[in-house]
Amino acid sequence: MFYSAIAIVFILLGLVGLLGAARVLLHRGWLLGWLRGMLGLGILSVGLLIGLMAFDIFSYQQILTEKSLATISFEKVASQKYNATLVDGDGNEQRFELYGDQWQLDARLVKWSGALAGFGIKPGYRLDRISGRYFSLEDERNAKRSVYALTESPYGIDLWAWLNQSTSTLPWIDAVYGNAAFVPMEDGALFEVTLSHTGLLARPLNDPAKDAVTRWQ
């Protein structure tokens, strides 16, 4: 809800910018036409940028309590090759071909500090990617790799990446990666990935998953 509200504010700011640009560009008179045109185009660009940032913000969800992000099941196809089925918290299903012995799920996190955290604003998240990994270092260097993006920032505007590089500019916002530890893949295994304030956690949900985790410990 909070991140949707932020996105709506950005959309309204973008609309204000677009209306301001239209007013400048359509103003009659040629004396300052060129300056008006440049100013109008500048305002128009800012308005469009703010609007695109709003679409990116819409893709984040707020962490209210420990939250189930996804379930992941595995079907073994060949040695060190698995079909993985990921179902996110909204019920959207994606399928991937993962290579290796282990898997990992990454998420992008936006954390608030200082006065904003004092107001009760909760961190936000967005699933980022899923990947496979080999246990053997030699296989990890030479065998086929598999990494898949789970979400993309619309229109190439990645607000999280900018925040991640601007920690000194905006010290009250932290844009960081959250990832679960690498977990073994196993035929028939089913895992749940949850997210809390401490990070991501992969939990085995059935016997094949529990047996796989026990063997790797």
Attribute tags:
217 residues; alpha+beta; 6-stranded antiparallel sheet; 5-stranded antiparallel sheet; 6 helices; 11 strands
Task: Describe the protein's architecture and organization.
Keywords: Membrane, Transmembrane, Transmembrane helix. The chain crosses the membrane at residues 37-58. The chain has six helices and eleven strands. The protein folds into two domains: 2-58; 61-216, no CATH class. It is 35% helix and 35% strand. Helix 1 (2-25) runs antiparallel to helix 2 (33-58). The protein is of the alpha+beta class.
Mind sketching the topology for me?
Layout: H1 2-25, H2 33-58, E1 61-62, E2 67-78, E3 81-88, E4 93-99, E5 102-112, H3 115-118, E6 124-133, H4 137-142, E7 147-149, H5 159-164, E8 173-179, E9 183-184, E10 190-196, E11 199-204, H6 207-216
Antiparallel strand pairs: 1-6, 2-3, 2-10, 3-4, 5-6, 5-8, 5-9, 6-7, 10-11
Helix pairs in contact: 1-2
Shape by Cα distribution: elongated
Query: Number of domains in the coordinates?
Result: 2
Structural class assignment = alpha+beta
Mean pLDDT: 76
State the distance separating the first and last CA atoms.
39 Å
The percent of residues in helical segments reads 25-40%
Note the total helix count.
Answer: 6
Biggest β-sheet strands, sense, barrel: 6 strands, antiparallel
Element order, helices and strands?
Answer: HHEEEEEHEHEHEEEEH
Regions with pLDDT < 50 over 5+ consecutive residues? none
Radius of gyration: 22 Å
Topology, number of strands: 11
Strand content: 25-35%
Keywords: Membrane, Transmembrane, Transmembrane helix
Protein name: Cation/multidrug efflux pump
Transmembrane segments: 37-58
